[in-house]
Amino acid sequence: RAHCPVSAGGGDRPLRKRHGDKAASAKGSTPGGPSNRAERPPRLVGPNQYKMKSAADLIGIMPKKKKSADAASKEAKKETSIDVLPEGVTEILHQKVHGPFIGEVEEGKTQTGLISNLFAAAMFRHDSEPTDFLMILGQMREASTIISGSSAPTNASGGLGVVLRPLPANIYTVAQTEPRLKVFSPNTNDEKKFVNAMFSYQVAKNIERKEIRDGEGLTFDDIKDRLFANTNVPINQLRKHVKQVANFDRANKGIWSVKAIGEDDFPGVEGLGRKVSPEGVAAYESQCAAIHRLKDLGISELYTGTNMVANVAMVQIYLNGAAQAAMERRLKLKKVLEVMRRQKSSQLIYYEKAFEKLDAEYKKVKRRQEIARFIYEE
């Protein structure tokens, strides 16, 4: 803690402890001492602060030595040896605390991060050169045609607009963001509760926005195609959410309008929004992004069952028995195969094919057993 760096942002500079009469003078005299403990005897004052009444008072008082310039500079360096970081606020982690990032922060190391109530992400500082600059590309301008007899602009050249800005001295690259809230497990009560509240709020908010802008609500096809185009929501479940927050007007081209506050216990759009926390939205979006990333990697089948720990534990019992049985069959056939090779039997080729088949089955079951063990441990 004594050598921990501090940040220029403030709020984290370690306070120096005050002892003895300094703390007592700062806080005032208390019967329990400066820290509510047994009061310590006062410190001996130096000769410069002591008011001599007689020459006998000088007995036992040592003269104060003057410090050299080198000793004073060394003490000043010791006091100012703490590193000051250019940005942010420093937080000291306990030795047993993993930290807010995916990777563990090693002891004695400092890791910069962008941390909020929604997510945490590691940041890495890069030094910029004086000759570096930031170039922002604009929109492509098409060449304008000049028409005779009109007031068209004389500059008919097209091109790409570019804006040049100086590069800041401190440049940070942000790593992968991780939600601060624990991501919901698939098909759990927490996930269903949050998804139901968020879907109802999104439907009510967009219908209300359309009513304020155009004077009418949305049709069911607009809700399904525009709001939930990239979400696999069943039609019946989506229709249930729409009925909870809106009324259907069959005479007006099948338009859905937001219910009035108090109708069928409808709390209003703002009331629905209070049930959806920003931390939950960040966790849900991170879950959706991870699912899309797995699908991009070619993993199309994802486990979405409930009570995963109990189910995987039961599967492990079956897979352990299947792997043991497959290994025993493989070993028995291997011994028979060695005997057939020594005898140079004419049926050797059939035993070799059977051994290859049993070996492939054993490897397949063993692979499933390792996956189940990994899931259970995680």
Attribute tags:
single chain, about 375 residues, alpha+beta, two-stranded parallel ribbon, 9 helices, 10 strands, about 40% helix
What does this entry show, briefly?
By secondary structure, this protein is an alpha+beta fold. It contains nine helices and ten strands. A hairpin with a 5-residue loop joins strand 9 (246-249) and strand 10.
Overview of the molecule:
It is a single chain. By secondary structure, this protein is α+β, with helices and mostly antiparallel strands. It has nine helices and ten strands. It has helices at about 20-25, 70-80, 190-215, 220-225, 235-245, 270-275, 280-295, 310-345, 350-375, and strands at about 5, 85, 110-115, 120-125, 135-140, 160-165, 170-175, 180, 245-250, 255-260. The strands form four sheets. Strands 3, 4, 7 and 8 form a four-stranded antiparallel beta sheet that branches. The longest helix has about 35 residues, at about 310-345. The radius of gyration is 37 Å and the shape is extended. It starts with 5 loop residues before the first strand and ends with a helix.
Question: The biggest beta sheet, please?
Answer: 4 strands, antiparallel
Helix/strand/pairing category: alpha+beta
Please, how many helices? 9
Order of helices and strands: EHHEEEEEEEHHHEEHHHH
Query: Kindly state the mean pLDDT as a whole number?
Result: 75
Beta-strand fraction estimate: 5-15%
- What is Rg? 37 Å
- Taking the alpha carbons of the first and last residues, their distance comes to 33 Å
Number of strands: 10
Helix content: 40-55%
| Poorly predicted segments | 13-46, 146-154
Net shape: extended
